Amino acid sequence: MIRIYAATSNPGKLRDFTVAADELDVSIEPLPGLNEIDAPSEDEPTFAGNARLKAVYYSRFARGELIVADDSGLEVDPLGGQPGVRSARYAADAGFEAAEPRTTDERNNLYLLSKLKNIPVNQRHARYRCVLAAARDGACLFMGEGTVEGEILTQPRGTGGFGYDPLFYLPTFGKTMAEIDLATKYQIGHRGKALRALLAAMSLK
User: Fold this and answer.
1) Which domain holds residue 132?
2) For the chain, how many structural domains are there in total?
3) Sign of CA dihedral 39, 40, 41, 46
4) DSSP character for 83?
5) pLDDT of residue 203
6) Share above pLDDT 70 across residues of the chain, in percent, rounded to a whole number
7) Does a cis peptide bond (omega within 30 degrees of 0) precede residue 120?
8) Element (H, E) at 82
9) Could you tell me where the DSSP H helices lie in the chain?
10) pLDDT score at 21
11) Are 192 and 186 in contact (CB under 8 A)?
């Protein structure tokens, strides 16, 4: 069995990776001591650039181990691809504050809805994109990418998932990402697709 350490403390991402690991017979564990390591500046303009940067950086703290890092986010077509690589910091970048205390995810969702308030529902096409990079001892060895297409609703639905999942509607399923089960999310979602692409790349090397 391949053992991979994931350079993330995001519980939603770790949950997705755990489901993927069960499906693919791969051991994916959080990088030991991650919270004690200063995070690198994610200043690359693309998902691929940030994923590669993080994987290479964190691999230097676990010599000999395969370290996987991801960069992922939401691209909304009528907003020119925003929030893109700034998905996790979308509201904060704009200085957006909600009328009452909210979580980061809730503020991001509210800000996204405010940006789309004049855009008709049938023109809110969007996609989730994820890029994974695997590195060992400071060298990036493999990469994988996955996307899933959808639409942005006018109000959130569902209590599962994280990030923009309550707004990301999947027409084929008639549900948002926050309304589908984890196994289905892995099969059709951007993170599962990226992991399968990464493992396929690893098998070819």
Assistant:
1) 3-204
2) 1
3) negative
4) B
5) 81
6) 97
7) no
8) none
9) 11-24, 47-59, 90-94, 104-115, 182-188, 190-204
10) 67
11) yes
Q: Are strands 175-176 and 67-76 parallel, antiparallel or unpaired?
A: unpaired
Give the chain's residues under pLDDT 50. Answer: 204-205
Whose tokens are 């809730």? That residue is 106
pLDDT of residue 27: 83
Give the pLDDT of residue 92: 94
Q: Work out whether strand 3-6 and strand 67-76 pair parallel, antiparallel, or are unpaired.
A: parallel
d(CA 73, CA 71): 7
Asked whether the beta carbons of 152 and 126 are under 8 A apart, the reply is yes
Which tokens sit at 97? 């504050």
Here the CATH number for the domain that contains residue 184 is 3.90.950.10
CA-closest candidate to residue 6, choices 34, 39, 25: 34
For residue range 54-73, what is the model confidence (pLDDT) as tens digits?
999 999 999 999 999 999 99
**Which of the residues are catalytic?**
71
Structure token pair of residue 170:
């999947």
- Per DSSP, the three-state class of 138 is coil
Q: Where are the alpha helices (DSSP H) in 90-181?
A: 90-94, 104-115
> Which region holds residue 17: left if phi is over 0, alpha if psi is between -120 and 50, else beta?
alpha
The two three-digit tokens of residue 9, written as one number: 């403390």
